[in-house]
Amino acid sequence: MTGWVRQILERYGQKVTVQTGETTVDVRAFLQPVPERSERAREEATPIGWVDVRLWLYLGQMALEETDTLGWNGWTFRVRSCRPYYVGDRLSHYWAVLEREREAAGCGS
Q1: Distance CA 74, CA 72 (A)
Q2: Would you state the pLDDT for residue 104?
Q3: 3-state DSSP assignment of residue 94
Q4: Residue 61 and residue 6: Cα distance in Å, rounded?
Q5: How would you classify residue 56: left for phi > 0, otherwise alpha for psi between -120 and 50, otherwise beta?
Q6: How far apart are CA 109 and CA 32, in angstroms?
């Protein structure tokens, strides 16, 4: 991992909680919505109303698996894909695409 990426994440990254199986790890990463060309948030209609379906970008030091979940700012995200990025022959960071986990609608009886 390149040292300058680690320093930037430590100073400016957000605190993200990664759940991998039974293990929970706090890491520093950049997490933000992927920009849309139309400047509008993608939404879709569901039986319970409108749902935000934007994808999110993760840049960090930890490799993510598709079975992992991330917690940030009270939201939970699922990993769609993750890949390493290199500068020359040195690992620079991991780049991942995330989607917000939808909450299950509870039914009272």
Answers
A1: 5
A2: 46
A3: strand
A4: 7
A5: beta
A6: 38
As given in the structure block, the two tokens for residue 96 are 């991942």
The token pair at 109 is 């009886």
pLDDT 10s digits, 32-70: 988 766 555 555 555 655 555 688 999 999 999 999 999
For residue 40, give the 3-state DSSP assignment. Answer: coil
Give me 40's structure tokens: 């509008």
Q: Where are the beta strands (DSSP E) in 1-109?
A: 14-20, 23-33, 43-46, 49-52, 55-60, 69-72, 75-87, 90-100
Model confidence at 94: pLDDT above 80: yes
Token couple for 17: 């909680």
* Stretch 24-32: mean pLDDT: 95
Rounded to two decimals, what is the model's pTM?
0.77
**Whole-angstrom distance, CA of residue 37 vs CA of residue 50:** 20
